[in-house]
From TrEMBL:
<keyword id="KW-0489">Methyltransferase</keyword>
<dbReference type="InterPro" id="IPR046884">
    <property type="entry name" value="MnmA-like_central"/>
</dbReference>
<feature type="disulfide bond" description="Alternate">
    <location>
        <begin position="121"/>
        <end position="218"/>
    </location>
</feature>
<dbReference type="GO" id="GO:0032259">
    <property type="term" value="P:methylation"/>
</dbReference>
<dbReference type="GO" id="GO:0002143">
    <property type="term" value="P:tRNA wobble position uridine thiolation"/>
</dbReference>
<feature type="binding site">
    <location>
        <begin position="30"/>
        <end position="37"/>
    </location>
    <ligand>
        <name>ATP</name>
    </ligand>
</feature>
<feature type="region of interest" description="Interaction with target base in tRNA">
    <location>
        <begin position="116"/>
        <end position="118"/>
    </location>
</feature>
<dbReference type="GO" id="GO:0005524">
    <property type="term" value="F:ATP binding"/>
</dbReference>
<dbReference type="Pfam" id="PF20258">
    <property type="entry name" value="tRNA_Me_trans_C"/>
</dbReference>
<feature type="binding site">
    <location>
        <position position="56"/>
    </location>
    <ligand>
        <name>ATP</name>
    </ligand>
</feature>
<feature type="site" description="Interaction with tRNA">
    <location>
        <position position="363"/>
    </location>
</feature>
<dbReference type="GO" id="GO:0000049">
    <property type="term" value="F:tRNA binding"/>
</dbReference>
<feature type="domain" description="tRNA-specific 2-thiouridylase MnmA-like central">
    <location>
        <begin position="226"/>
        <end position="294"/>
    </location>
</feature>
<dbReference type="InterPro" id="IPR004506">
    <property type="entry name" value="MnmA-like"/>
</dbReference>
<keyword id="KW-0808">Transferase</keyword>
<dbReference type="InterPro" id="IPR014729">
    <property type="entry name" value="Rossmann-like_a/b/a_fold"/>
</dbReference>
<dbReference type="Pfam" id="PF03054">
    <property type="entry name" value="tRNA_Me_trans"/>
</dbReference>
Length: 384
């Protein structure tokens, strides 16, 4: 049996009764070929569960490049499962990913918005297609993933909590889960910090111990985003216009730019422009114009609040009264104190305590009450 002193240091020893109870539960752990899912499977083993792994292939390579690492990731996942002595299942969800994630991703970019495909991937693939397959075809009581989040409460009334490691917390990406889905899922590494995860993997001699974290779009890899997007959407170049109405350049396509962007605008050397950097402050989709202004503190960058729709609340009914909480409008952002004002069951107005920069339509606004992730929605527009 594999032993990790670091695991023993950070996880309480379970009683024989707890181990016996867990031994009746089958858990299918999503194995990505990374260190987080590898250590998750080990933790579940130590806690007495019947553990099996599952590798999902959700993108079909359609070029000759090395961007998609599915083959290497599968080999690493298999090596980890062999080391742990557990079975590895393999499943292809590429059709589901294309229909339910990627086509929406393209539609949003075509409309000049900036979507977050990882959130939709979690909703449609990892906690829907995977969860259903594990339960119905493999007889699982739970699924498990390497996400840095925690759950509280019993299976029927589970709440989604931030991960213990504030730097790695991934609750922002999981706000679309229902309390039922949270109750059917286990998040072993959410209870520890990333350096501890790597320390456990090194002690076990896992091939993934020093593997770099993936940072690309969900299941597509770390290819150049602009080149990738251009393969699916025709570019529509247009003018770059200042907030004062002056045309000062050309853009390659609105879809390549996002609010608050500074780099890659190709603006420089303008007479009487001053030395301050240029920032994207708006998109005029109707006229295909990119609106820019100088200075990171330009008023046009800031919003007093936002309107959000496509709402989802993890463990509650639609909000029908004022709620004071905090919000994140992008990943790894500091919590923003705010008030939620319901417009109807499908739409809310959110007012920040202080104006915020680069609030981006198409991105998600995710709400928190302390450690609890309440849910969120898609940003439809900024309140300027």
């Amino acid at each position: 049996m594999l032993i990790s002193n670091t695991y023993n240091q950070y996880f309480p020893q379970l009683t024989q009764e707890q181990l016996a109870r867990n031994a009746t539960k089958k858990v299918i752990c999503g194995m990505s070929g990374g260190v987080d899912s590898s250590v998750s499977a080990f933790i579940l083993q130590q806690q007495g569960y019947q553990v099996e792994g599952l590798f999902m292939k959700n993108w079909e390579e359609d070029d000759d490049t090395d961007y998609c690492t599915a083959a290497a990731d599968l080999a690493d996942a298999q090596a980890v499962c062999d080391k742990l002595g557990i079975k590895l299942h393999k499943i292809n969800f590429a059709a589901e990913y294309w229909d339910n994630v990627f086509e929406h991703f393209l539609t949003e970019y075509k409309a000049g918005r900036t979507p977050n495909p990882d959130i939709l991937c979690n909703k449609e693939i990892k906690f829907k297609a995977f969860l259903e397959y594990a339960a119905e075809d493999l007889g699982a009581h739970y699924i498990a993933t390497g996400h840095y989040v925690r759950r509280a409460g019993d299976d029927e009334n589970a709440k989604l909590l931030r991960g213990l490691d504030a730097n790695k917390d991934q609750s922002y990406f999981l706000y679309t889960l229902s309390h039922k889905q949270v109750g059917q899922s286990l998040f072993p590494v959410g209870e520890i910090e990333k350096p501890i995860v790597r320390a456990i993997a090194e002690e076990l001699g896992l091939i993934t111990a020093k593997k770099k974290d993936s940072t690309g779009i969900c299941f597509i890899g770390e290819r150049k985003f602009k080149d990738f997007l251009a393969r699916y959407l025709p570019a529509q170049p247009g003018d770059i216009r200042t907030v004062d109405g002056e045309i000062i350049g050309r853009h390659d396509g609105l879809m390549y730019h996002t609010l608050g962007q500074r780099k890659g605008l190709g603006i420089g050397g303008l007479k009487n422009a001053g030395d301050e950097a240029w920032y994207v402050v708006d998109k005029d989709v109707e006229n295909n114009e990119l609106i820019v202004a100088q200075g990171h503190d330009h008023p046009r960058l800031f919003s007093k609040g936002l309107i959000a729709s496509q709402l989802h609340w993890v463990d509650r009914e639609p909000i029908r009264e004022l709620v004071r909480c905090t919000v994140k409008t992008r990943y790894r952002q500091q919590d923003i104190p705010c008030v939620i004002e319901p417009i109807d069951d499908e739409t809310i107005r959110v007012i920040f305590d202080e104006p915020q920069s680069a609030v981006t339509p198409g991105q998600s606004a995710v709400f928190y009450l302390g450690e609890i992730c309440l849910g969120g929605g898609i940003i439809e527009e900024r309140i300027k």
